Amino acid sequence: MRGRSSACWADRPADAYHYAGQGAATAANLRGTVGLWLLGLKARAAAVLGDEVTVRAANQEAMDRREQVVPDDLDQLGGLFFYAPEKQLYYDVESRALLGHGDDQLAVMAENAVAGFSDPAAPNWAFGDLAGVQCDLALVRLYGGDLDGAADAIRPVLNLPASHRNNGIVVSTARVRKALESGPARTAVTARDLRAEIEAFPASGHALPRG
Q1: Cα 94 from Cα 135, distance rounded (Å)
Q2: ∠ CA(25), CA(2), CA(118), 5° rounding?
């Protein structure tokens, strides 16, 4: 899964879509969460490609299958081998945000996804997932016309120490920067300042694997 996700973030969404789709088809009859994870990866890659039909279908299938999950050996290992409900919500939100959606319902979903990763003591917590979904919340708010809310959402990410600014997080912040370059708010002082801050963000350091 990490390789397929890396393909997406390495600007090869078509490759990511191909491998995730193949994996999801192979895992279609499995009852553990790996099949749901592959559907989430497929949805995210499809979103980068602008394929909203596939995004909706993959997310809906993952949602339907969540109710039928029977934990398998991989799930029992936990950690990166378990596709938690919090992560499923995160991937669902991200795929919709990558399509440019910013409606109130998605904003609530994004806020719930951030809340799901806000407790560092929780078993499924990961700093990379929290940062990723905070960037997604910023995107959703931007697309919904809430510039100040977007700035609030991404602020914790921009405050991360250099040791935590890995490539996945830098890519996520860059998506917010790109969104700030368009729309009616692009000339606002807050938008200009936030763009400048995000542009300086990657220069602060390299780092740990996402998650």
Answers
A1: 9
A2: 110
